[in-house]
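Researcher: Structure for this, please.
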Amino acid sequence: MIDLERIRSDLEEFTTEIDREYYLNGAGLKDKLESSRIYRKFAHLFNRDTIDQVYEYGKTVKGEDERRLRYLRAFLVNDYMENRVKELSDKFLTEESGATVGVEGETMSFRQSAIAMANEPDGTRRSSIFDARNKVIEGLNPILEERVQTLHGTARELGFANYAALYEDIKGINLIDLESILRPFLQKTQNLYTARMGELIREKIGISLIEAEKHDTGFAFRAGEFDRYFRKEDTVRTLIQTLAGMGIDLNAQKNIQLDIEERPRKSPRAFVAPIRIPGDIKLVIMPRGGHDDYATLFHEAGHAQHLGTTRADLPVEYRYLGDKSLTEGFAFLMEYLVTNSHWLRKFTEMQDPDDFLRFVYLYKLYFLRRYAAKLSYELVLHKKGLEEASDKYKETLESSLVFRHPGSHYLTDLDDGFYCANYLRAWIFEAQIRKVLVQNFGENWFEKRGAGIQLQKWWSMGQKYRVEEVLRDLGYKGLDLAPLVEEINSNLK
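Model: Predicted structure, token format:
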């Protein structure tokens, strides 16, 4: 007889321990990642018998019980997959976190080199950093190749035709349909993207888009001319004040802890570690200033608010599991406040934001096209395997984005479990719910306590509902690209 309550209790303890481990490593508090030790401790969760029992029991129940079992099975299958590659994951992240690059007599950590590259105005030195980083990536690729091969083999062992079929099943997302929805979007925005991106590259780099390298676009999107509006010293204060406008007191939320200390091995990008939902949420940041830093912080703050506001009495499946597009959508909602003209005038000294808005909407279009291309590439990779995958990666990304991509990035630019699909659905969802907030509270909805109440109502339900269910409750038929396409076109044409 399956002991569901023990599984649920152990699931929460496992996620607590694994997220604490990732927090310590990502925050620069622990050099060596030891997730394999935690997986061994909870090995009983990640075996075929447990998965099969949950699956079979799920066939016998309906309603809320069926929903919970579906989420539980998805978690168990996903982490069964992760358990099979835990040593390889640890090895990769440990080597990556300890890797260094040497450029012109200067040595820096691999993680910090990404920031240095994005901020380097000299094209020759930027290229040198890029080349040095690529050598590290090429050295790490054999680990990732073995990891992908193991994941593919495990998917077949579980009875699926391939890795893609497995994740379509447990996510409940038709990946081919999603790709089909996005194909017209790519076609309709091709000329607009090529024109505006070409203008940016010529202005910032002095070359054509087709001549540009990946590191050139990173520098171009760094947009240092806007840095004076997004000062490092104002980062945390601006977040606190923004939330306060919606009636949310971050300082009073003792369950959401800010880690802002600078450490050499700390991840340069903000992230959230949900060690215990909702009781212990770590919001990790290392402020450096700039619009992208603000956007990343606000994105992660969106996660923190969603997870930290989740009702403590919800079942574990609704607090930790469910549709990840939902929490990503709420994160994007906060992130895109940095593109709101009213927010810019209130929280920065930018009184005429038109140039900045054209820039950030190009950045958004770039990301949408990039992730649509990633979805297409990942479908091929996970159905056909590693053979010629690096060439396919280069071909697919360059077809969508035009500028040059190194084939060596074909595995480092990969999201486990088709998480790119979660992001794509989240982008669409965010534009739709933001439209509702604007209709109800105005363009300056972030200043309205009513908007904060509405958000907290959504957040309180954790991840119980899928994005399609939330949208139908708001009067939509489901995911609809129209609001997203409309705002991109209106800001870029």
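Researcher: Any notable elements?
Model: The longest strand covers residues 271-276. The mean pLDDT is 94.
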